[in-house]
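Task: sequence design from structure.
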């Protein structure tokens, strides 16, 4: 029996290139690649989409919807790395760490929507606390996040690495209309009653994310402590190959969070910082926006769907690929 055939539609973008790199050299699957002159041909793409076992879409939203419409053969399974289907009926959300049953849902799914990079960190922090009853569903949540410029895709690379880079700012906050496309995704999959305030930013470095969520204990259910928040994260993510929860910080004021700390990996590190005097808590997530935030998650979902190495997605598995 031949190995499963995977077609990456959009393998020249930032996510597609990373997926292709991580799949290179693997012997447990085959990657179908179109010659350069056929990559934009609808007819050739349609043929590839219907010849493969799993189609992995690394395309803008509208192009991803068009690609899904080209799939005619019932046996073709799809992973969409765009934001087109992240809350759509009939699609399984491709965040295996969402809850205990999510890996099984992904493994059985015909259509999987890869999470957004920012929602990956936000949901890893929020969903366990909501499920544990420590964070009320109607809590006013605010999420701040800074990503490397590769999060903008090719336009970000051109602005910061191209010939005319003199005007690229060192730091820029965007989404000031509080209507970023990730907001519905975070609200829906975290189980929040109201849309969170989401404040994203880009820094003048290539890749990596630091995402933070500040909480006031006095606004949480009576008796909730920072230790309970930390314990809930530990319990929820116990045994997960790609998510780690850092131990409580002994000297938080001396610590720094480097958004590039986990670049090149499919790992995500969560932290809880507390100030007992004021009853304030800071939840934090560090991960690679092109790793666990995009290509790494896609490979992780691909392996679940194909029943391949269960822990693939860890650094060792990706580096061996």
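Answer:
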């Amino acid at each position: 029996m031949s190995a499963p055939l995977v077609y990456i539609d959009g393998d020249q973008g930032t996510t597609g290139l990373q997926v292709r790199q991580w799949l290179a050299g693997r012997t447990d699957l085959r990657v179908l690649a179109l010659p350069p002159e056929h990559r934009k041909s609808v007819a050739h793409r349609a043929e590839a989409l219907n010849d493969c076992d799993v189609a992995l879409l690394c395309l803008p939203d509208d192009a991803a919807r068009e690609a899904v419409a080209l799939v005619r053969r019932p046996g073709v399974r799809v992973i969409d790395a765009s934001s087109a289907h992240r809350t759509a009926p009939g699609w399984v959300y491709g965040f295996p760490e969402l809850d205990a049953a999510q890996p099984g849902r992904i493994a059985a799914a015909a259509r999987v929507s890869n999470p957004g990079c920012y929602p990956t960190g936000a949901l890893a922090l929020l969903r366990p606390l909501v499920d544990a009853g420590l964070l009320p569903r109607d809590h006013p949540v605010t999420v701040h996040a800074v990503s490397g410029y590769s999060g903008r895709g090719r336009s970000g690379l051109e602005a910061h690495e191209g010939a005319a880079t003199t005007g690229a700012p060192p730091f820029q906050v965007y989404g000031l209309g509080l209507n970023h496309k990730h907001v519905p995704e975070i609200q829906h999959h975290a189980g929040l009653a109201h849309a969170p305030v989401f404040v994203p930013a880009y820094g003048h470095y290539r890749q990596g994310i630091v995402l933070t969520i500040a909480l006031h204990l006095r606004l949480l259910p009576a008796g909730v402590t920072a230790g309970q928040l930390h314990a809930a994260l530990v319990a929820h993510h116990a045994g997960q190959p790609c998510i780690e929860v850092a131990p409580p910080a002994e000297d938080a004021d001396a610590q720094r969070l480097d958004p590039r700390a986990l670049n090149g990996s499919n790992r995500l590190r969560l932290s809880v910082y507390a100030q007992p005097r004021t009853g304030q808590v800071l939840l934090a997530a560090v991960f690679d926006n092109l790793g666990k935030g995009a290509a790494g998650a896609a490979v992780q979902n691909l392996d679940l769907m194909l029943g391949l190495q269960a822990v693939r997605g860890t650094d060792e598995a990706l580096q061996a690929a």
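The radius of gyration is 20 Å.
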